[in-house]
Amino acid sequence: MNLIPFDRCMIPGFLQMAREEGWIVARWEFEFLLSVFARGCFCAVPRGGMGVGFVTSLRHERSGWIGNLIVAAGYRGKGVGRMLFNEALESLRSQGAETVWLTASTMGKRLYERHGFRTIDTVNRWKMISTGRRAVVRAVTSPLQALALCLHLDTLAWGDRREGLLQAIMARGEALAANRGHLVMQYGEGVVQLGPFAAMDEHKAAELLEHAVSLVPEGVEICLDAPASNSVAERLFTRMGFRNSGSTELMYAGRKPDYRPELLFGLATMGSCG
What is the pTM of this model? Predict the structure, then answer.
């Protein structure tokens, strides 16, 4: 089995595997990841064959994130995932990442623990189908102000500056922001993802969420990932009609981060970049 750089021509192959697993992913994420940290993205290829496994990683200012680790069903249990993970981890550490993040399924947790990863939280996936109910639209800030606020709150929540990721998401999404909170709506095929979504208090989070939900056409699925330790978020989502559809473990290795989940109501991506 050979590990080679993840190239843009391989994106369709990954997306097909991801769809078969029920993942919520989009091509733009890989275009972004390959443009800013291609050295941390790999594909596993058997001799004379096509790609059977993939992994990506992203370097922030002091931390990094490993995501999109997937192996074709017929090659699982043969060490392919371990090879991909090791390469991604080494790439981040060689570039000075002090903290490395990832989300883990029950199946993958044991592998990550062997490399020093520990659980810091649980990430719950929340979903609902829009009813098309309209809400009173509040005033929002300019795109430039929205980016500044998003970066400020995101840095407080994660303990690191993740400006490149936030700029890429806000360039393609619709940002809602007002003094103490921000929310970005990302539109996909038949689904709207909410995130990054952060707020200083429950009132502002509720205002932003009600506004966002009111903009989604009736019958369209809305989803977001949020830390389970934010009990305010759980209460708000339940009241709004969202349901918990599953969870993963949020893990880190290296320097303990200054993590503040009480500010986080929605991650920026669905597991691939945090």
Answer: 0.93
Question: What CATH number has the domain bearing residue 239?
Answer: 3.40.630.90
Cα–Cα distance for residue pair 66/116, rounded to 1 Å: 14
Q: Which residue has the tokens 């990841």?
A: 33
Query: Residues 158, 240: one domain?
Result: yes
Whether 249 and 209 map to the same domain: the answer is yes
| 216 and 258 housed in the same domain | yes
Q: Please tell me the distance from the alpha carbon of residue 152 to that of residue 158, in angstroms, as a whole number.
A: 10
Query: Structural domain of residue 90, as residue ranges?
Result: 2-97
Handedness of CA 198, 202, 207, 212 (dihedral sign): positive
Report the candidate in 223, 237, 232 with the shortest Cα–Cα distance to residue 267.
223
pLDDT digits (tens, 9 = 90+) for 24-42: 888 888 999 999 999 999 9
Q: Of 239, 232, 223, nearest to 262 (Cα)?
A: 232
The C-alpha atoms of residue 211 and residue 231 are separated, in whole angstroms, by 21
